[in-house]
Write a structure and sequence with these properties.
With 464 residues, the protein is of the alpha/beta class. 38% of the residues lie in helices and 13% in strands. The chain contains 16 helices and 13 strands. α3 packs across α5 and α5 packs parallel to α6. The chain starts with a strand and ends in a 5-residue tail after the last strand. Bound molecules: zinc ion. The site of zinc ion has 9 residues, from loops.
């Protein structure tokens, strides 16, 4: 998400090249707030969709070119000039060398905990997979492989960005390292594993709220990493994710949201921007992607991709944005429900003005579009079974703006796509991780994706 120069909130004369602004009400956290994660007007009980987005003044920054680093450069260093933490650090008097040293030190701690630090993950045209799906030689499937990322999924990206921010706050004297609030997350797997690794690297206490059916191996690993695990059963008559209810209670008591849910922590979405930036760098010398098909649970992965690719386009690093398709399962598709309701408000031949009007309406009438899925969802792609798509509006907007749409896939397609992914690429991706590919398989079966299209998918997590 980019904005017009001079439109940055934070006050006239603000030197920052980025700001955190609520997409629902336009409010920003107070200047100097060490934990500017949630809209100050959230929780007031109105029907506004309070989600902070990181907006970038594209006139004030440049997308790093070839001199920005090499294939092994940590993405939080390579793209640091685009990150809110760097803008705040520089404005507070931390020089660039000190910032780089801070990121490098934390990355080293991550490597000690997890055996690997952050480097750009592979992004390549998957030849055999493209052939299997009947693509022409100039089209095909480009895979962004996150299975070898820190903790085995993309989730750590969101949380490492947060850890850097928290450390910057301490360096600036705005937070007391001797009185660190606990961190908290609700997760059933990859996000919890990532949070535990990153929290351990930052030497911070982490509370993890997990469902009763959480994988025992994951729970054991969380405990090894010194996370404090609470199992949360569903309560009769209470809708919504019980782990999320427990997270909310912990946050009300002062814990910090170490989550990948944009409504709880808008800054966490920004950490995921490294994904889109890495894809933009890799695509710099070739034709653009025509389409990006992304699995959606809580929505942070998709919104991070959409917003970071928007940045890359606005900064001239990409010629245009791809069409976005979001993928959910037949077990739960709250995003598709919201998309259909918003699309129904648009007239035939809708103009950009019509779209803006519909989005503005949705931002202040959340309950007409998004509410918890009524039944307890089940799917082989259990990592995207969030009851709500917390970051829904950014994803719906991205799809409508680019001519994309949501895709809902059945279990047979999810299983088939996973077999196809593993057999053609040799990557040990799990069914959640290949569910974006399942969406592409469904779109190809319907004839909605042409043979010459260049389509990106994300293999978001490794089989455990
Ligand atoms: Zn707000």
């Amino acid at each position: 998400m980019t904005i017009r120069p001079g439109a940055i909130a934070g006050g006239p004369g603000s030197a920052l090249a980025s700001a955190l602004v609520c997409a629902g009400c336009g409010a920003s956290p107070a200047p100097g707030d060490p934990y500017p994660f949630r809209c100050p007007n959230a929780g007031t009980g109105d029907d506004t969709d309070h989600v902070l987005r990181r907006l970038l003044d594209v006139r004030a920054v440049e997308f790093p070119g070839a001199g920005g680093g090499d294939a092994a450069t940590n993405p939080y260093l390579r793209y640091r000039h685009l990150f809110h933490a760097w803008h705040v650090a520089r404005a507070g008097g931390i020089d660039d060398d000190a910032y780089c040293a801070l990121v490098a030190r934390l990355d080293g701690e991550v490597a000690k905990v997890d055996g690997r630090g952050f480097v750009p993950t592979p992004f390549f045209r998957a030849g055999a997979l493209s052939d299997q799906l009947g693509f022409a030689p100039d089209g095909g499937v480009w895979v962004k492989d996150e299975t070898g990322n820190v903790s085995g999924s993309h989730k750590a990206r969101h949380l490492f960005g947060l850890l850097v921010y928290l450390e910057v706050m301490e360096r600036l004297g705005r937070a007391d390292p001797a009185a660190r609030p606990h961190l908290a997350i609700a997760s059933c797997g990859n996000a919890a594993m990532a949070a535990a690794v990153v929290a351990a690297a930052g030497r911070r206490v982490l509370d993890v709220f997990v469902p009763v059916d959480a994988d025992p191996l994951v729970v054991a690993r969380l405990r090894e990493l010194d996370a404090r695990v609470s199992v949360c059963p569903r309560e009769p008559g209470v809708t919504g994710d019980p782990t999320y209810h427990r997270l909310r209670a912990a946050l009300a008591e002062g814990a910090l949201p170490f989550t990948c849910q944009g409504n709880e922590n808008g800054l966490a979405v920004e950490g995921g921007f490294t994904l889109g930036y890495e894809m933009a760098t890799a695509l710099a010398d070739g034709p653009a992607l025509d389409r990006l098909v992304v699995q959606v649970g809580g929505g942070a992965l998709a919104s991070a991709c959409i917003e970071s690719i928007d940045d890359a386009v606005a900064l001239g690093a990409l010629p245009r944005a791809p069409r976005f398709n979001a993928v959910q399962t037949e077990g739960a598709w709250p995003l598709r429900r919201a998309f259909d309701r918003l699309a129904a408000r648009l007239p035939v031949g809708a103009t950009p003005g019509d779209l803006r009007e519909a989005l503005a309406y949705a931002a202040t009438h959340r309950s007409a579009f998004m509410w918890p899925w009524e039944e307890e969802p089940r799917s082989v792609a259990h990592g995207i079974l969030d009851d709500e798509t917390y970051d829904w509006l950014a994803v719906v907007e991205g799809m409508l703006r680019t001519g994309g749409s949501p895709v809902v896939v059945g279990e047979d397609v999810l299983v088939h796509a996973n077999e196809l992914a593993v057999s053609t690429t040799g990557i040990d991706v799990d069914p959640t991780g290949s569910s974006g590919l399942a969406g592409l398989v469904a779109l190809r079966d319907r004839g909605d994706v042409g043979d010459h299209e260049r389509v990106g998918v994300l293999f978001s997590g490794v089989r455990r």
